[in-house]
Amino acid sequence: SSPAQLRQGVARVRQLEQMLVRDGVVVCKVHLHVAPATQKKRLAKLQANKTTRWRVTQEDRWLARHYRPVERAFERTLAATDQPLAPWHVVDGTDSQHRALEVGRRLLAAIQHADDKVPRSRNAPKTAVVDAAIRARFATRPAGDALSDEEYDTELERLQGRLALLSRRKRFERHAVVAAFEGMDAAGKGGAIRRIIAALDARQFRVVPISAPTPEELAQPYLWRFWFQLPPRGHYTLFDRSWYGRVLVERVRGFASAPDWQRAYGEINEFERQLAEHRIIVAKFWLTVSREEQLERFAERDRNPLKRFKVDPEDWANRKHWAAYQRAAQEMLARTDTRHAPWTIVPADDKRRARLAVLRTLGDRIEAAIG
Predict the structure, then answer these.
(1) Residue 30 and which of 3, 141, 143, 287 are 20 to 30 A apart at CA?
(2) Contact yes or no for 166/330 (Cβ under 8 A)
(3) How do residues 4-34 score in pLDDT, each as one tens digit?
(4) Which of 78, 89, 104 minimizes the C-alpha distance to 13?
C-alpha cells in the first residue's frame, strides 16, 4: 500500500470506531504481545503435533521470520489508531492465566465506562444552511408539455433498450449498481423502479423495500442492514427508500435523536464513497412532487380498491409534516450531493417524464462509469 492509502485506511478505521461507539457499541481493542523466543517456541510446538499443525500457516511463518519489522508496524498501527473513544490495550501474552485475566479486566472496564465515552449533544454538528439554488431544484413540474402516448412509449422503449444493452456489456461485469429512490409518499418511486427492472434480466437485479427497522436491526449500527443488500458484480440493487431515512423520516418524526441524525451525513458520505471505490455505481433519485398532486394521488388510490392498500394512516400523518420533510430533504441534498454519488432531483408531478428522466440518468451514469 502507498503512504496515501495507509493514511486513508487509518482515517477510515478511526471513523468506523467513532460511529460504532456513538451507536452504543463497546469497542475494546486488545493487542497480545509475546517475545520472539516465546513465539518461536509456540509455533514449533504446534507444528510438531499432527493434530495442531494446520494452525500454523505460511503467513505465520513469514511473520515470525520478520518479527522486528512486524513489531514496528504494529507499534505504528497502535499509535495511529489509538483514540479516547476506542483506546488500545497492550497485554503480555506469555502467561495464559495472566492473559485471560487481564483481557477480562480490560473488557469489563470498557463496558462499565462506555457511557462516559459517548459525545453529548453539544458536540453535534450544526444544521446546514440551504441556499436558494438548492431549493430551486425542488421544482415539481418538468419542462415541456405532456407527452402523448406514442411519444412516451417510443422514448420508454428506447431508454429501456439502452439500459438493457449497457447491462449486457462485458465491461459492466466489473461493476455493480446501487440505485436509491427517495421522495414524498406517492411521488412515483415504485413506478420508476418497475420501468427499470422491465429492461433487466430477472436474475440480474433485486428490489429492496425499506421500512421500519426490526428489533435485530435496531440492535446494530443503522447502516448495518444496508451492507447486506449490496449487489455482486454485474448486478443491481434498487432501494425503495434507503439509508437516507435516518436524515428524513427519523429526523422529522423524532425516531432518531438530534446527535444521531446530524452525524449521519458524514457516515452516509463515507459509506457511499466506499461503494464507489469498489466499482459500485451509486445513483440517487429524489422524486419531488407537489402537495396538491400528492393529495390527488392519495384520493385516487382511495377510490381504487386495487390500490387502496398503498395509502395507510402513516402516509396521511406524514402530510402534516410536509414543510419539515422539505427542509430535511433540502439539507440532505446540500450535505450528501457528492461527485461519486450525486443526487438527481426528478420533478414528479408528471409521472411519465419522471420515469423517463430516471431511466435516462441511470443510463448516463452507467455509460460514464464503464466507458
Answers:
(1) 3
(2) no
(3) 878 888 888 888 888 788 778 889 999 998 8
(4) 78
pLDDT in tens, 169-204: 999 999 999 999 999 999 999 999 999 999 999 999
How many percent of the chain have pLDDT more than 70?
A: 92
C-alpha cell at 273: 464513497
Total-model pTM: 0.72
Q: Which one, of 139, 88, 85, lies nearest residue 113 by Cα? A: 85
Report the pLDDT averaged over residues 282-311: 91
Per residue, what are the HEC states of the chain? CCHHHHHHHHHHHHHHHHHHHHCCCCCCEEEEECCHHHHHHHHHHHHHCCCCHHHCCHHHHHHHHCHHHHHHHHHHHHHHHCECCECEEEEECCCHHHHHHHHHHHHHHHHHCHHHHCCCHHHCCCCCCCCHHHHHCCCCCCCCCCCCHHHHHHHHHHHHHHHHHHHHCHHHHHCEEEEEEEECCCCCHHHHHHHHHCCCCCCCEEEEECCCCCHHHHCCCCCHHHHCCCCCCCCEEEEECCHHHHHCHHHHCCCCCHHHHHHHHHHHHHHHHHHHHCCEEEEEEEEECCHHHHHHHHHHHHHCCCCHHHCCHHHHHHHCCHHHHHHHHHHHHHHHCCCCCCEEEEECCCHHHHHHHHHHHHHHHHHHHHC
